[in-house]
Amino acid sequence: MFLNVNIRWGANIWGLARPLRFIRLNSQSRWLDRQSNDYYTREAKVQNLRSRAAFKLMEIDDKFHFFNKDKTQRVLDLGFAPGAWSQVARQRVGPQGMVLGVDILPCDPPRGVHSIQANILSAKTQELVRLYFSRYFQLYKNDELHKHHGYFQDGLEDELHNIRDTETYREIFDSSLITNKTDKYPVDVVISDMYECWPQTTGFWNNLTNLAYYRMANTSGVAVRDHYQSIDLGDAALVTAIDLLKPQGNFVCKLYTGKEDKLFEKRLRKVFQQVNRFKPDSSRNESKEIYFVGLRKKALIDKLDVFMS
């Protein structure tokens, strides 16, 4: 009797497992077919952009004009991998602008962009962001970071040796001096496209980062889950903007729509003078994603009050 029951359960398990496996394979095939036939995916390859997401930021900026080549803007790109938004920002801030990408995942930044692999909610990461945009770091600004020293390009070994013991070098690398030598609000624009799916090609991750690749680089396909996780990441981006964005600075953040997005918009309105929802044409019709644009950050913000609602 028990044997028959087990056999029936086993048959049911195998009966369910096969369709689920085939469903997943079929879903992957549909995704690949959609990608190959997608205009923006093809155009991204033609223009040497890292993903089709670049066109979304172009459309958003074309409408709201938060980048300005006539000013020396500093841009912080959160969850920057694979780097498409950083590419657009680098093009639109002009030659004197600076773009820094931050991601908990490993990713080589586009040319002209620097990056930090770190958790943006870490106080240490925020101090590194302030350091990057400080006038001391700008003395050594290059297109690529040195593979060992981080802040210096290959070929500058002699210069590095000469300045290693100078006061300026110590001010750059002595963390005890960072707070007094950097701006509290160094960033002009914060952009966040966290959740953009990308293939991992290098590097590793571990459980200490809360399974970041699974959580931040992939949507689950379950609308409610994706919505709440995007709210979580949106709040992280908003906290970063409160802590690092200059008054009158601008903010762009992706969200997956759901019942909590109005509360998120309410929080944004406590931080920015103008808040807009926008869905670019390059965003697929079936996608639940929407972009919130916060313009002209307010001067006085009570962070506790922002998140009380």
Can you summarize this structure?
With 309 residues, the chain is of the alpha/beta class. 45% of the residues lie in helices and 16% in strands.
Write the layout of secondary structure elements.
Blueprint: H1 2-37, H2 39-46, H3 53-64, E1 74-78, H4 84-92, E2 98-103, E3 114-117, H5 123-132, H6 135-138, H7 157-163, H8 167-173, H9 178-181, E4 187-192, H10 212-217, H11 223-244, E5 245-256, H12 261-269, E6 272-278, E7 289-297, H13 303-306
Parallel strand pairs: 1-2, 1-4, 2-3, 4-5
Antiparallel strand pairs: 5-7, 6-7
Number of domains: 2
Residue share in helix: 40-55%
Give me the CATH fold name of the largest domain: Rossmann fold
Strand order, largest beta sheet? 3-2-1-4-5-7-6
Runs in which pLDDT lies below 50 for 5 or more consecutive residues are 1-18, 20-24, 139-157, 196-217
Explained architecture:
- The chain is an alpha/beta fold and 309 residues long.
- The chain has two domains: 2-37; 51-133 and 182-306, Vaccinia Virus protein VP39 (Rossmann fold, 3-Layer(aba) Sandwich), CATH 3.40.50.
- The protein has 13 helices and seven strands.
- It has helices at 2-37, 39-46, 53-64, 84-92, 123-132, 135-138, 157-163, 167-173, 178-181, 212-217, 223-244, 261-269, 303-306, and strands at 74-78, 98-103, 114-117, 187-192, 245-256, 272-278, 289-297.
- Strand 1 (74-78), helix 4 and strand 2 (98-103) form a beta-alpha-beta unit.
- Helix 3 (53-64) packs parallel to helix 4.
- Residues 1-18, 20-24, 139-157 and 196-217 have low confidence and may be disordered.
- Keywords: Methyltransferase, rRNA processing, S-adenosyl-L-methionine, Transferase.
- GO terms for molecular function: rRNA (uridine-2'-O-)-methyltransferase activity.
- It holds the Pfam family FtsJ.
